[in-house]
Amino acid sequence: MEDTLRELAEQAYSNYSSVLNDIDRIKTDITHVRQGKVELSEIQTDKRRLSNRISREGTAELQALERINGEANFQDIRIVRRIVELSRAVGRITTNSRLGNTGYGTGFLIAPNLILTNNHVLPDPQVASNSTIQFDYELDQHGNPGASESFNLLPETFFVTSNYTKNIEDPFSGLDFTVVAVAESSHAGTPLTDFPVARLDKKLGKIIDGENCVIVQHPKGDYKKIVMKDIRMLVLKDDFLIYESDTLPGSSGSMVLGLGTGEVVALHHSGVPRKNRHGQWLRKDGSVVQPGDPDNLIDWMGNEGIRVSSILKMLERIPVAESMERGRAELLGSARNVSAASVRNTVSGPTHAASNGEETPAPQNYYSMNRSESVGSRTQYFEVQLSGVKEMQKDWKENATGLVPGLLLNEPLYPMSTEASHRNFYYIQVRSDKNPWEIAADLEGLPQIETCTPDLEMSTDIREGHYGRWSGNESLESLDDGTADWSESEGNFRIRWANARLVKAHIQGNKHREYRAWNREAVNMCEIDLGKEPFKTSAKNLEKIRLVQLDTGYTDHNKVLGGFDLLQDEDFIDGEDARDEMDTGILRQPGHGTRTASIVVGRQTNDRIENDGNTGIAVDSSGRPLVKVIPYRISKSVVLIGRGRNLFNAVLQAINANADIIFMCMGSYPRPMIYSIAKTAYERGIIWVCAAGNKVESVIAPAVYPGTIAVAASNPNNDVWKYSSYGTPVDITAPGEDVYVPFKSKKQEDIMVFGSGTSYATPHVASAAALWKAKHLDFLNKHVKKPWQTVELFRKHLKASANKKPNGREWDKDRFGDGILDVRNLLQQKLPDIDDQTEVDALLGKLEHAYAGKEKPEPWDLGVRETIHFLWNTARRKLTPGFESGNVGEALTERARISVAAMTGRPVNKVLESYSQFDDDQTESLLKVYFESFN
């Protein structure tokens, strides 16, 4: 898809360049219009188009000209209403593959059962048959997701396409459009006729040069957006319309409207990149675009859409199967006779004769829209554990649709697994306006279901405002625009750690690179040369190690260039690649995946970063990464993971891809689905390294699960970080307070800053795991018969090699694991001779399965699960500055309120009176009991 989009952009650039003189003239004239020097109507040199545009106003010529020329300041409300109504004809197209949602586009209804989109979105009937269109996928006036409806596409009923590449041997190529039929009813049974049709009209006059456009789109599969920020039509070029760039490239298939008429003028299909004289694409800062650059860094000069008139003309001539002739005739017939009476739900108007003999819409209120009833229903998601009784499982598979009102989807979580423990895990989607916990209670009342838990968004352990200003925290990035200013003095690192054992001498000697890399010294990496024995074996085998990162994705920061494996990356959010979209603002922490990955693969940048001074753990003596991180994007924000299914799918994919190590630098409260996949990963021999948590009394999930490696955080004084989570599940501690990591300045320059969190401790251990497994790869491949033994061998060596007296006193093993990570000592741990089978068997025989003797956690009552979800999210939100106070108990169901009273011995209103009086101690106590039940 990326190559396709690049080819489209190159074609668009060619079109743009061929009319550059006209574009420059029109842009100059637009400036003069804004300054009041000329009228908008004076820009249009084609008098016939101007005449048609005047006719569409439906008033006397002088009045029409006055209205057109004044459109920059005023717009008739009827046109705004029309645009809003037309926007409901626009839907999000989702294409599917083995991983689920892997691609998005936009499309819109142009006939009662036909949609229009790009060929590069739906190139052939096979792709279309595996795709859906989702209408009303948008936020309501309160910012909450509304009720949406998904419809299957039916290419066997109607499918016509024009390839995006022009082929001289194919006269019907080069327009990049697809028209395909849609099912009459949605997955929930809603009729397609509830949605309006945006009729296409091939007559001229819908828009003139310099006039504003409106683009209705689902950018990158996001909620529906209408772009109205002074986007001007620039010029027509053959079959294409070129307009100023204020849209997001990637909004393929968007509806382009003329703001003055509210009519469809084009099908958006590509952006136009700015180039240098060598033909290289340019960034907004003037530098050359690099592989993997996000769209928002590229300097897009304009956008290109396919003209409606050109699409209709080709549809008249293109050959179609006999069975599709009727559909084409209906589409073209309605296009010729654009009237409200032609077909139900059409947003258009009656026609009248224009002065040039063409038919144009009359200027009256002409809406015959059937709006779907607002019933408040929405799609809700649940993880389900079926009864252990086989007959009940069989009945569920056969009769779930009849058992669950509004059931949209019912699928096994482990579709290919033959393990008995996996067969009773299901994932369902239900269309309902009820409280999700009430739905779960109804479903748990069925004899076929043991437990049912709503799959709701999960707040993580990382929140804004934890620790004050930047340089000791993970907070400033969430409070402003996602950037920081480099300053070691203002950050107080040199002051705070002036007497710290690991930095004192380096600070006094003003050895910046040494004290900035204190974390490498803390884990005993400074004297290791991975290019020499006894460590050379690790370096040689590292290229065979699959190291998967579950985070917010990757960026192209200089510190990590070449450190990511972008051939195996996956995106479990919107189905594109795993690039971090770098969204800023509250609940965003752009670049978190890059910062944590830098602890593994951070390279020497040869002064490309002015204040460099740290490298990753898995690098050679020259600072070159020896392993590549495979980024799996599971979250847009480290403070909100989203649905647990994203995390589940990511781990399942890592298992299927034979990953060796997973590391995850965020977490949340335990839940059955994640417990199951963590145990499965463990039994497949995957070393899953997890952050213990930040400013939470209890170790969070997935670190709390027995099979994972839980990591707490230490500081430059080789002491524990005061905000690190702690408890018996912790295996090891590693540097996490004031670690030097990559960031962006306010000028979008690559810089380094000091950040804190167990997020940074975790990749130290993941790096060590990669080095350890690479060193012992031959032994493990030959002797380990039970995959989980690999995890336990690593845990054994990790604990045995830990620095147990980092400050000359005994380490607190009960709360922070066996000590601080010591990589050198870890890699010197001995395994039996590879040919001494007796000694090998003795070693492996002593290893214990992490879940042995630990029964599967009894499912807590649904009321308790709701309470935990509520308490966790409320406690996390309370750490957000400015969060509004209020009654925190009002959203709980009665069942949850009873569970609160039962667990605390106090009335719910005394436990949860308000945000300002929220009982933190009581909350931590309840969460601790629940969390520890999973270990």
Automatic annotation (TrEMBL):
Which top EC class applies here? hydrolase
| Enzyme Commission number(s) | 3.4.21.-
Q: Which residues form the active site?
A: 551 (charge relay system), 592 (charge relay system), 759 (charge relay system)
What SUPFAM superfamilies would the database entry show?
A: Subtilisin-like (SSF52743), Trypsin-like serine proteases (SSF50494)
Q: Which Gene3D superfamilies match?
A: Peptidase S8/S53 domain, Trypsin-like serine proteases
| UniProt xrefs under InterPro entries | Peptidase_S1_PA (IPR009003), Peptidase_S1_PA_chymotrypsin (IPR043504), Peptidase_S1B (IPR008256), Peptidase_S8/S53_dom (IPR000209), Peptidase_S8/S53_dom_sf (IPR036852), Peptidase_S8_subtilisin-like (IPR050131)
Record region (Disordered): 347-367
Alphabetic keyword roster: Hydrolase, Protease, Serine protease, Signal
Can you give the residue ranges of the Peptidase S8/S53 domain? Answer: 568-809
Family, per entry:
Belongs to the peptidase S1B family.
What is the protein name for this chain? Serine protease
Q: Which organism is it from?
A: Pricia mediterranea
